[in-house]
Amino acid sequence: MQIDFNTPTPIEYLCFNGVEFTLKRDDLINSELSGNKARKIDYYLYNLPKNITTVVSYGSIQSNAMFSISYFAKVNNLKFIYYANHIPSLLKENPRGNLELALKNGMILKEGYSRIEEPSNSIFIKEGIAEKSAYIGIEKLAKELIEQLNDKESYQIFLPSGTGTTSLFLSKAIKKLNVDNLEVYTTPCVGERGYLIEQFASLERNSIYYPTIIDSKKRYHFGKLYREFYQIWLELQKNTSVEFDLLYDPKGWITLFDNLDIFTNLVYIHQGGRIGNISMLERYRRKYGELNEDS
Ligand SMILES: *Cc1c(COP(=O)(O)O)cnc(C)c1O
C-alpha cells in the first residue's frame, strides 16, 4: 500500500526576532510520517522487494526514525523489529511519545545492539535512516525548493543535522543539478563537527558536495535539556504559530542567531518531529515548569 505525500510542501514567509525567513514546511508531508524521515523512507515506498516480510532497525528509544519506520511497516504489513541499546524501566512501564505510538503500530522492541539479528527476507535500516537510498527522497525536496524559490535571488538554506544525511544529500542534489543560487548550511546536534564530517564521509566520498558546517558559541550535548532551548522553542511558537521540533531545532535557531552575518536570505527547513515533542515537552515541563508559555 502507498502512503500519500502532500508534496510539494508549502513554503511560508515568516519573521522571528527581526529575522525574515522562508520556511519550508516539510513537517506537513504526511500526518504520520514526519519531515525528513518521510523523505528518507520515500525510496522504500517504491522499491520494496516483494519477498520482504520484516524490517530491522536500531537506535535510540525515542527516535523519530523509529516511529516513522513503524508506520511504514504497519502500512506495508511488515514485521518491524527494533533494537535499543538500553530501555529505561520507567519507559517500559509507561511508554510515551514516539515509543508509545511505535508500539501501537506493532513494533517489536528488543534490548541490546549485540543481539541484533537479520532474519531472512528482511531489510535492515541504519540508525536514523542514514542510508544512501535516502538520496532519492531528499533530491525531491531539492527539486521542490528550486521550483519554489526565485532563481534570481541567492538563498542560504539551513537545517540542523543528526546523522547529517538530510543536509548532505540536499547539498549534493542542489550541486548535482547545477543550481548555484542555493547554498546549504548545517550544524551538528549529535556530537561535534568531526563526527558530522565522518557521517558525511560514510555516505559520500566527494567533499565538494558537503554542506557548510557552522556552530553555536556554546557547546550542547544531544538530548540534554537546556533552558534556552525550551525558551527559544516557546518564542518560535508564539511568534510564528509554527510548532518546531524540540530536539534539533532549538540548537538550529541558536546557531543561526550566532551566525547572522551569513544569513542574508534564509530558508529554514522544518524537518518534522512533532510526535517526538510529546515526551520532550513532558521532560522540559518537569524540569523548568511552564515558563512563560501563556504570556
Ligand atoms: C531526524 C531529524 C533530524 C536529523 O536528520 P539527519 O538526516 O539525521 O541529519 C533533524 N530534525 C528532525 C526534526 C528530525 O526528526
User: What is the tally of helical segments?
Assistant: 10
Rounded mean pLDDT is 96
**Strand fraction band?**
15-25%
What topology, given as strand order, has the largest sheet?
1-2-10-7-8-9
Number of strands: 10
**Main β sheet profile:** 6 strands, mixed
CATH top level of the largest domain? Alpha Beta
Distance between the termini: 45 Å
Bound molecule kinds, no repeats: pyridoxal-5'-phosphate
Shape: globular
Number of discrete domains: 2
- Helicity level: 25-40%
Structural class: alpha/beta
**CATH architecture descriptor name of the largest domain:** 3-Layer(aba) Sandwich
Low-confidence stretches: none
Give me the Rg, rounded.
19 Å
Could you say what the CATH topology of the largest domain is called?
Rossmann fold
